[in-house]
């Protein structure tokens, strides 16, 4: 069933289609304020300040890197920074042992009989990066040579 939108002056003659009437005048007191609640997760990792030129900025609490912080401005640059930076100061991400990671991924490939291209799957790369931002993805050829190294051990 489709909905028809008609202004208040026009009425539909079809009985089986509902008509939604739209008022022409809007009471200004009923319109919500344009101020939005700030819900970005970056607020807990940064502190806002105004620089010496009067520009609003946000500073990372972990490494003190600064970013623009206009009201209504995007936070995507700071979110990308926070993924890589935040947590290292408080121990959330221990240093990644790349050799140990490659050995473990080789054992997973052998144990579950995965193809070497498993390490190049977009979902696996995203998952590994989510678990630790310092992880370096490897190619299928590197996975093959790592499996052979593990086999020789």
TrEMBL record:
GO terms for cellular component: nucleus. SUPFAM superfamilies: Hermes dimerisation domain. Residues 57-81 form the BED-type domain. This is BED-type domain-containing protein. The keyword Disulfide bond does not apply. Keywords: Metal-binding, Zinc, Zinc-finger. InterPro entries: Cuticle_assoc_protein, Znf_BED. It comes from Vicia faba. GO terms for biological process: regulation of transcription by RNA polymerase II. GO terms for molecular function: sequence-specific double-stranded DNA binding; zinc ion binding.
């Amino acid at each position: 069933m489709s909905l028809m939108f008609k202004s208040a002056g026009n009425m539909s003659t079809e009985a089986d289609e509902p008509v939604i009437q739209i008022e022409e005048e809007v009471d200004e007191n009923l319109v919500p304020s344009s101020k939005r609640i700030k819900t970005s997760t970056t607020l807990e990792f940064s502190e806002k300040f105004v620089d010496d030129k009067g520009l609003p900025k946000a500073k990372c609490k972990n490494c003190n890197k600064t970013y623009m912080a206009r009201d209504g401005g995007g936070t995507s640059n700071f979110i990308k920074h926070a993924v890589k930076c935040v947590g290292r100061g408080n121990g959330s991400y221990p240093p990644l042992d790349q050799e140990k990671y490659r050995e473990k991924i080789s054992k997973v490939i052998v144990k579950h009989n995965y193809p070497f291209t498993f390490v190049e799957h977009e979902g696996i790369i995203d998952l590994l990066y989510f678990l630790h931002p310092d992880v370096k993805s490897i190619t299928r050829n590197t996975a093959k040579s790592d499996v052979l190294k593990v086999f020789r051990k």
